Amino acid sequence: MNQIRVTKEFRFESAHALMGYDGPCKNVHGHSYELSVTVIGAPIDDRASAKLGMVMDFGDLKKIIKKQIVDPFDHALLLNSEVPQRELQNYGEPFTNIVLLPYQPTSENFLLDFAKRIAELLPQGVQLHSMRLRETANSYAEWFAADN
After folding, report:
1. Distance between CA atoms of 78 and 75, rounded to whole angstroms?
2. Is 75 a catalytic residue?
3. What is the pLDDT of residues 62-76, one digit of tens each?
4. Could you point out which of 33, 41, 68, 143 has its C-alpha 20 to 30 Å from the C-alpha of 110?
5. Residue with the larger pLDDT of the pair 113 and 90
6. Who contacts 112 (Cβ-Cβ below 8 Å, separation ≥6)?
C-alpha cells in the first residue's frame, strides 16, 4: 500500500524515415517528441538518507533519461541500420548526426528500446512502470511494464 508512481517529462527533436513503408513516412521528416517516464516504488523511509520521502530523485531520473535517450536522439536522423548503403550516402551530406538503429525507427520500437536502456539503471527498489512517447499532437505510443 505504499507504492507511489512518479513521472518526469522530456522533449527532443528528431528526424526519421521508415524503410520500406508504403506511405509518406518513408521520406525523411521530423517530430517534436514528448516522452513521459513513470517509475514506481516505495518512498525512502531511511531518516539518514538525503532522499527521505522520495521514490526517486527527479534529478537522478533526469540524468538517466538525458544520457540514455535525449542526448543520443535529440537533433539526430534516426534510421534503420538495414537502409541500403546508396540511400545512406544520400542522407550523409545534409545530415551530420545519423543514428543507425537495429530496428525500424517507429514510436513503438523506440519505447521497447528505451525500456531496456532505462530499467537497468534505476535504483534498487524502483521499477519502470510506464512510458508515453508523443510523436504528434494527436498520436502517441505507450509502454507498460504490466504488459511485458
Report:
1. 9
2. yes
3. 999 999 999 999 999
4. 41
5. 113
6. 103, 143
Radius of gyration for the alpha carbons in the chain, expressed in angstroms and rounded:
18
CA angle 19, 118, 20 (to 5 degrees): 5
- Catalytic site residue 93? no
Q: 107 with 140: CB under 8 angstroms?
A: yes
pTM beyond 0.90: the answer is yes
Task: Collapse the DSSP code of 133 into the 3-class scheme (helix H, G, I; strand E, B; otherwise coil) and give the result.
Answer: strand
Question: For the purposes of burial, counting CB atoms within 10 Å of the CB of 113, is it exposed (0-12), middle (13-18) or buried (19 or more)?
Answer: middle
Q: Which of 25, 29, 82, 108 is catalytic?
A: 25
What domains, with CATH codes, occur in the chain?
4-147 (3.30.479.10)
Residue 25 annotated as catalytic: yes
Grid coordinates in use for 70? Answer: 535525449
- Helix then strand count (H, E) for the chain reads 4, 6
